[in-house]
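[job 4471] stage=fold_predict status=RUNNING
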Amino acid sequence: MTAPTIGVAPTIGVALADDQPLVRSGLRMIVEGEPDLRVVGEACDGAAAVELVAATGPDVLLLDVQMPGVDGLAAMERIAAAGAATRVLMLTTFDLDEYVYRAMRAGAAGFLLKDMPGEDIVTAIRQVARGVDALLAPALTRRLVDRYAGAPPRAVATELGRLTERETEVLGLLGRGLSNAEIAAELFIGETTVKTHVARVLMKLGLRDRVQAAILALESGLA
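[job 4471] inference complete, writing structure tokens
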């Protein structure tokens, strides 16, 4: 990340990976239209995306799922295996549920639909760069919940027994894709309290972020 100047917000370095030049051009315009974001490089396939992350160390990578050769999913797994600090936001279409689930497990920071408004993409970049929240487009969250709600839950991890009743409630709501504000409204508690509960859930279960928490909630039948 670029070193901050006193009184100026630090710049977030963003890399773009998509096999369609027009898509990359559109993403570049969205990113470079923001004073705190800058594009550090582009890649046209998954292999090039892995090399780009290694060479430039971007804060955030926007990574298309479907690309020729090494696709985005395989690239995500390679980036995760390399231990890169880059947060990866996958760009997907509406019909790729199986990819969403697999890449969530591999460590994707979130999934965005390609037809989302530019301001939502910018918000997502800033959010994951801060390490605050991992993101799923609401439509994808609903589809994942629908897909796994009827599946028999896996054996609940022993660690789940370490959660308080309230923390278990919060974990279930994370599995439904709710934001902190939505969880606060659902449970009639303050948003700051929700943040504390989320942090404790992640710590007790040894989870990296909200995406992993959502996966556990889905697999354990809590969502």
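[job 4471] summary: The chain has ten helices and six strands.
[job 4471] exit 0
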